[in-house]
Write a structure and sequence with these properties.
Residues 60-103 form the MULE transposase domain. With 103 residues, the chain is α+β, with helices and mostly antiparallel strands. Helix content is 22%, strand content 37%. Strands 1-2-5-4-3 form a five-stranded antiparallel sheet, covered by helices on one side.
């Protein structure tokens, strides 16, 4: 996305709603500090494939994170699995304000 980080975070909800129109199994959740301020704290999204896809994956899930070091600090977390062809299969994503037990 182009523009400011503030504007990009404001577009997350509308972007996720558009993605859900294409894939009805898409799941997302965005949390903010309050209704008035609408300060972004964390979000989660998952492209929900059919249940039979999960049955084919190897029974190991890897969770990894990387720090976002720009103006709005946070952590991008990913959950992945390996399919029978040894390819990476992305399960879920999350952006949190920091690595805490609440996140």
């Amino acid at each position: 996305m182009r523009g400011s980080f503030q504007h990009a975070y404001q577009l997350l909800t509308s972007y996720f709603v558009e993605v859900r129109l294409v894939g009805p199994d898409f799941v997302f959740d965005i949390q903010t500090t309050s209704c008035m301020a609408k300060r972004f704290t964390r979000c989660f999204w998952c492209f929900g494939p059919p249940q039979k896809t999960y049955n084919l994956l190897r029974p190991v899930v890897v969770i990894d994170g990387t720090f976002l070091n720009w103006r709005y600090h946070g952590t991008l977390l990913t959950a992945i699995a390996i399919d029978p062809s040894n390819h990476i299969f992305l399960l879920a994503f999350s952006i949190t304000d920091s690595e805490t037990t609440e996140s």
